[in-house]
Each structure stands twice: as C-alpha cells, then as structure tokens.
Amino acid sequence: MFEIYGEGIFKNPVIRQAAAISWAFFLSLFPFLLFLLSILPYLPHYDKLQFYIFDVMLANILPADIKVYVTEYLQDTLIPNLKGISNFVTIILALIFGTNGTHALIMGFNLNTDVKRTFFRNYGIALLITIAFVSITVLSLLGIYYAEVVMKLFNPVNSISWLVNNLTKIISFISFPLFYFILLALFYWVGCLKIKRFREAIPGAIFSTLLFGFITYVFAFYVRDIARYNFLYGSIGSIILVMIWVNLNIILILFGNELNLAIKKVKMDKKIGDELAAQIEQQQFVQTSSAPNNNDHNIQL
After folding, report:
1. Which of 52, 144, 157, 212 is the least crowded, having the fewest Cβ atoms under 10 Å away?
2. Stretch 166-172: mean pLDDT, rounded?
3. Is the pTM of this model over 0.85?
C-alpha cells in the first residue's frame, strides 16, 4: 500500500496541483469571508457570533501570527465597509466567487481519473459543499453559544466552576478538529469520483486532520521564531504567509485523497486476486475430478 501511495504522490504532480489549487483557493478566500460576514447580521446573536469567529474559530484554524493579520484586515478594512456593500447581489456574487476554491479542489481530486463530470455539475457540487460548510460553521458557533448559555444558567459548585469558565476553549478544542474531520470526509466522498462510500473517505480524513494539527503547531513556531517576513517584505509579508498556509493545507488535503485512493486500489487488487485464485482453484478441481472418469472409460474399452 505504501508503494502505491508513494507512486500516487510522486508520479502524479501533487505539489504542482496544490500550487494551482492554492492560487484559486486564495483568491476565493476573501470573497468567502465576505459572504460569511455578510449573512451574520441576519442571524440571531450577531455580536456573539462575530466574537466566536475572531476569537474561537480563527484561533483554531490559523497559527497565532497569521490570525492576527487576518483579524486586523477583517476588523479594520472589511467590516467597517460591510454595511455600504452588503446587499443581496453582493452576497450572491461573494458566494459564487467563494466557490471557485472548492471547485478547483474537486477538479484536483479527479484530475487523474478516466470518469469525468460536466463543468456545471462539478460547480453545482462545489456550491453545495460551500453552502454546507457555511451552514455547519454557523451551527457550530451557535452550538457553542447556547452551550455556554445553558451551563451558565446553573450555579456551578466549585468542583466544576473551572469547567464552566473555560467551556468555550474546551468545546472549541474538541469540536473544531471533529468539524474539520467530518467536513473532509464529506468532501472526499462527494468530490472524488472514485470514492463511492462514505467509509472509504474516513482514512484520508483522519490522516489529514492529524497532519493539520501537527502542521499548525510547526508553522506557528516557524512564523513566530524563525520567519521574518514583515521585516523583509513589509505589509505584504502577511499575504505571503497566508498564501503559504493555504498551500500547505491544500497539500495535506490532496495527500489524504491519495491515501483513500491507494487503500481502495489495494482492496480492489486483493479482491481481483482472490477472484482469480478462486477461478483457478475451481478449474483445477474440475480437471482433477474428471481425470478418473477418463481412465475408467479407457479400461472398459
């Protein structure tokens, strides 16, 4: 399996695919954030949801230094101008442009497959995945909010007061890796044409989720203690860091997809081998069972 997996990574230009997909994903990132922030005012508990996006969600997705850059851009540039540009047409256009990254990723999943979907079907699936991602994000943020409200209705005893005070951190620590895993599994299942069952998408989703946590820690250390992009490039350094971060995550997602395909290929080869072995065994049994009958016939003659 490791030989097939390595062949899938090195024979197929995964790194080159990731670079192309990352560019499309980066260009769609800010329209997607514009869409997400545009629909928040129409939801209940708007102020609290906005707090969770900046202090909880981004903190679990981005390394600390990159989170600071993205938060400053959103709070200082995007949100103050949001009321002037937020309307139905803008929201729809932001959703369409924000779907381009998802569409590019789906195309990357199926680049080396013989079966192809039409452009409109691929884009429709990407649009549904983007809407599902936004819906799950909003529901998870609302879930954190209501969990806090319910817990604070009770008068906690000293033994669980620490739990209540740190509930947001605990829930986010558990829920966001789980959310990332479920989203990736659905992504592989719906987006990749060779993955027919949901359980076939699970190994790659687990692998990418674990690598995501590891890479997040390593990249945060690199940005904080080694890289000095702001000193070298000025304000554009933060954009470079975001692009590198997007590229790393796309590589991880493609690695997970290749793992799913490698496992499926091993299972298919084993199934075909077992079927051939069964056919050969059956033919040998027929030949050996018919041999005594031929000998008896010759003796009678």
Report:
1. 157
2. 64
3. no
Which stretch of 41-45, 133-137, 213-217 has the lowest confidence by average pLDDT? 41-45
Domain segments of the chain as ranges: 2-270
Q: Please give the angle made by the CA atoms of 16, 17 and 18, to the nearest 5 degrees.
A: 90
